[in-house]
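S.,

Sequence below, as promised.
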Amino acid sequence: MSVLKRGNSKFWYIQFQFQGKTYIKSSKSTDKRIAQRVEREWKVKVHSQQYMGEKESISFREIMYQFIETKEGTSNHRSLLSHSRTLIKFLPVTRKLHEITNNDINHLMKCRIKLGVTNQTIKKDFDLIRGVWKYGKKLGYQYSDIEFPSLKIEKHRLRYLTSDEEKRLLHELDPYREDSGTVLSSKRPAQILNEMSDVYDLVIILIDTGARYSEISKIEWNSINLADREIRLWRPKVRNESVLYMTERVHSILHRRFNDKATNFVFTNRKGGSRNAATLPIRKAYHRAGISGCTVHTLRHTHATRLIQNGLSLYEVKEILGHTDINTTMRYAHLEMRDISSKARDVINRLNNDRNKPDLKIV
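The prediction came back faster than expected:
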């Protein structure tokens, strides 16, 4: 079937293959008959392009949204939408795809640099343009030859929490803390107390599992096996599933939350749906704890770092984190190398000590 529903979208989608290429776009209609008519018209255009050598033109904006629609349901869909708003501001998206020039790309880069945006973020803008350009080319639309300016991406030191920093962070997140200047926990509204407990529990689970924020914040109870202390974790970003075993404190948290559960989600928003991407309380807690240079993703780095520092190999950590490519896990390689270096030092010290022992003379 080439007219179908995707995800939670109310619109019918058109999807079909022709000459080894997959064509996907929204019909922008909730009426299946209209969607089928749009499908027929699109197929006619595709056939004419293939057999009559006609290359249709399309605006950059239209093909951009078609491309983003193909990513609906993936972890980077929201990010693509965010960067599309940037392109609308700084790129002439009303022009045809084949009318976008190198000058337009350079103009985008200069505007972003002027706003103080990092090269890493600009690179993501470029990645969206590349994706749109390749998608339009694949579908047979007219396109221009464009080149992207080189961007130097600064490498930053891998940031993870020390044990002391973790204690300070959890203290600032503790919903029952009684610091000066804060409302007594006994006088906090139940809704506020529950929200503070959510953040506290969430951070501990992230530290002890190494999961991504979105993987835990939206997890459902049907993925939790308290009896066997297992978490079946679906990873939308890499489209795979991992089985993680609970630490004692994760099991304690999930057991408590299970007894109080009201919906199928472990963490919920105020309406009972899955938790939103609300990370501001964690960032504020970092600030209050005097911990700089950290984000929510630092919790994942902390988990991986502790595993490697305590003897797990890079390949073992790759499986725990759910990386599809070992190159992603190689960011922790220097930690493993440091452990290997210390082992090498101990071997040489032992050999040197053996060599310097006095020979025993047999009397």
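The mean pLDDT is 86.

Coffee later?
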